[in-house]
Amino acid sequence: MKRAATLQLTTPSDREIVMTRVFDAPRKLVFDAHTKPELVKRWLLGPPGWSMPVCEIDLRVGGRFRYVWRRDNDGTQMGMGGVYREIVAPERIVNTEKFDEAWYPGEAVDTLVLVEQGGKTTLTQTMLCESRAARDAVLKSGMEKGVAASYDRLAELLASTKR
Amino acid sequence: MHQQHLDATFAALADPTRRAILARLASGQASVTELAKPFAMSQPAVSKHLKVLERAGLISRGRDAQRRPRRLEAKRLGEATKWLERYRRLWERNYQRLDALLEELKTR
Questions:
Q1: How far is CA B40 from the centre of its chain?
Q2: Distance from CA of B11 to the nearest CA of A (A)
Q3: Contact criterion met (CB below 8 Å) for A36 and A23
Q4: What pTM, to 2 d.p., does this model score?
Q5: With 0-12 CB in 10 A as exposed, 13-18 as middle and 19+ as buried, what is B82?
């Protein structure tokens, strides 16, 4: 069993959420997994119990994507979609995103960057929200700069106080 | 937990000195004098940070009227980190599934 890669979550500015994660695969495969519906449907699912019955991707600048998730026990659905602004296969995608029933104001802009080194791929996913308030809503909190970066430390701290 | 509480909590946690104070209190309660020592900071400056932490519900005061030791309120800290943890865990789950998928794609 390989050591699990850790997901870094940071908030480098008032409007951004940045996630970084290393994958043990060439970036062509990571890119495919983000752009081919039959592959996207297999991992972009969120919490347990949800599936992705709709995944449509028109991979060209100006093309749209449409995702719908479904909670299998009660049929609750959640949809989102957006437009591709920039596509540089297999290293970069910029697209807008908006949920059908938006719980944060405005549209966000996502930038996916894939960097390959020694057969491994570092993924950086940046979500730029329309406002700081929208970003905070995404994280469901009034999170301040630096808190996410120190999340791991706080988790340790918590663990140490659970005696 | 109310949004206002959360805002106060995250604002309180945004400062490295305050996080260090919480880390210190995780190993047991301490007086203002004891807390000021490692930070090369005046007692009033430390008191200011303590006030912010107290208002956010992250620390409380002990009974000893002389020392007035501060102690960590782990519950509130737990509530604050839960939001971030949930968001991160959601994505970590996705990416673990992606790991498995990529393994499969590599052997195709």
A1: 21
A2: 6
A3: no
A4: 0.65
A5: middle
pLDDT for the residue numbered A40: 93
Q: Say which CATH superfamily domain A9-161 falls into.
A: START domain (3.30.530.20)
Which residues does A156 contact at the CB level (< 8 Å), separation at least 6?
Answer: none
pLDDT digits over B77-100, tens only?
Answer: 777 666 667 777 788 889 999 999
Quick one: closest CA in B to A137, which residue?
Answer: B3
The domain limits of chain A are: 9-161
Tell me whether B43 touches chain A (CB under 8 Å).
Answer: no
Residue owning tokens 């002389």: B66
Tell me the shortest Cα–Cα distance from B54 to chain A, in angstroms: 17
Q: What is the three-state SS of A136-161?
A: HHHCCCCCCCCCCCCHHHHHHHHHHH
Buried b (16+ CB within 10 A) or exposed e, A86-108: ebeebbebbbbbeeeeeebeebb
CA distance B81 to B16: 16
